[in-house]
Write a structure and sequence with these properties.
Layout (H helix, E strand, L loop, with lengths): L16 E4 L3 H10 L2 E7 L6 E6 L2 E6 L5 H13 L5 E10 L9 E9 L19 H13 L5 E7 L9 H9 L4 E3 L2 H11 L2 E11 L4 E2 L2 H6 L2 H9 L2
Parallel strand pairs: 1-4, 1-5, 5-9, 6-7, 7-8
Antiparallel strand pairs: 2-3, 3-4, 5-8, 6-9, 9-10
Helix pairs in contact: 2-5
Length: 235
């Protein structure tokens, strides 16, 4: 039995740097295709977790599920129970900026949200969840070295996938030059800020909501390899 109800890992099983795809099958794909000597440390609730080596550096990868509450649970436990210092979300997102295309890579410098997640901190104002500058800069530089030009800026972490307001709700964020919509980064950034550790969200554009264009589930699981490679280099 592990240290928490959601993770079977024991202390020391998880590296200080971890990649966090929402889809646990993406975690499995990374472990099988990029990590050497990968050891599976978690299968609880189907959130596969693995630790192995990438170019000699020890790194872990684990699924987090969908939404801020799920990310909040897993990232909190990884930080406070397992000593993880660098948490890198690698996810899919819908483009809100008309210049973004399918498979473009976005680095979330900050994460707007409609979530009430931050209320737990009892702050006398509104907290702005941001990424670790160190990880942002390093990810951007690594991408350029690989011939990839990521787009860096603000993203939107939504609590709702099927919004009753439809696309009009997303258009409001688009007007504020928010690049893309996903569901987990804000919770991750807040947990990391509170604990004083590093966090980053990198996204691959998987769909264009305003154009009705989307990738398949299999593409989201296995085809976002450029983003995966950039994230692995951050270890």
């Amino acid at each position: 039995m592990g240290l928490t109800p959601h993770n079977a890992a024991n202390l020391g099983d998880i590296a200080e740097t971890i990649l966090l795809p929402g889809d646990p099958l993406r975690a499995k794909f990374i472990a099988e295709n990029f990590l050497e000597n990968a050891v599976e440390y978690n299968t609880v609730r189907g959130m596969y977790g693995y630790t192995g080596y990438y170019k000699g550096k020890r790194i872990s990868v684990q699924g987090t599920g969908m939404g801020g509450p799920s990310m909040g649970i897993y990232s909190y436990e990884l930080i406070h129970f397992y000593g993880v210092k660098n948490l890198i979300r690698i996810g899919s997102a819908g483009a809100l900026n008309s210049n973004l295309k399918i498979h473009d890579i976005v680095i979330g410098m900050a994460a707007c949200t409609d979530s009430n997640y931050g209320s737990q901190y009892n702050l006398p104002g509104t907290f702005a969840p941001i990424a670790s500058f160190e990880l942002v800069k390093k990810a951007y530089d690594i991408a350029l070295e690989k011939g990839i030009t990521p787009v860096v800026g603000n993203i939107f972490s939504s609590d709702v996938f099927y919004n009753d307001g439809g696309l009009d709700a997303l258009k409001s964020w688009s007007k504020m030059n928010v690049l893309a919509v996903e569901m987990e980064a804000a919770a991750l950034y807040m947990n990391a800020a509170r604990a004083g550790v590093n966090a980053l969200c990198m996204l691959t554009i998987s769909d264009l909501p305003f154009e009705g264009v989307a990738t398949t589930a299999m593409e989201r699981q296995t085809a976002f390899t450029k983003m995966m490679e950039i994230a692995l280099e951050l270890a």
